[in-house]
């Protein structure tokens, strides 16, 4: 009888351990599936190239609408008075990304909206911003500026090469 009880206890213990492992691996899979990957994008990917300067938004960028992306760029001094957003551009020193372009819809700039309550002092350093990408024409009510690309940022920090 003792042998029988020991054997039954061992089988139950083994079964419990296996169920525990299955639960952990199932949770691991569910966790991996729920985590979004971050795609690094570049300003040169925003528009198709054309001789007239009026390209189309690329399929690649359209496919990233609503997804997590990261982008490197430089801040412009053009920022709304309420600090609602910051423009990032591909090259340093662009005081106004709209001033030298015939059609402001087709500029390589992205409006970065920092998390509520966050503030970013102007910096000449290259910055790294990541968050959720929004694509499509939108006019800022306060400034009247048109943005084709917006980033609802989770973070914006000085860029550091990896």
From TrEMBL:
Superkingdom assignment: Bacteria
Source species: Bacillus coahuilensis p1.1.43
Name recorded for this polypeptide: Lipoprotein
């Amino acid at each position: 009888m003792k042998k029988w009880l020991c054997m039954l206890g061992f089988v139950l213990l083994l079964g419990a351990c296996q169920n525990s492992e299955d639960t952990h691996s199932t949770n691991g899979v569910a966790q991996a599936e729920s985590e979004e990957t971050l795609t690094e994008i570049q300003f040169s990917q925003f528009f198709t190239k054309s001789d007239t300067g009026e390209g189309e938004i690329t399929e690649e960028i359209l496919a990233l609408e609503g997804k997590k992306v990261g982008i490197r760029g430089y801040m412009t001094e053009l920022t709304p008075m309420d600090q609602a957003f910051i423009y990032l551009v591909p090259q340093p020193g662009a005081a106004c990304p709209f001033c030298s372009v015939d059609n402001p819809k087709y500029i390589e700039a992205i409006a970065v909206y920092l998390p509520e309550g966050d503030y970013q002092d102007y910096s000449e350093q290259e910055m790294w911003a990541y968050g959720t990408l929004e694509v499509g024409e939108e006019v800022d009510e306060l400034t009247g500026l048109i943005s084709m690309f917006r980033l609802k940022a989770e973070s914006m920090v000085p860029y550091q090469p990896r």
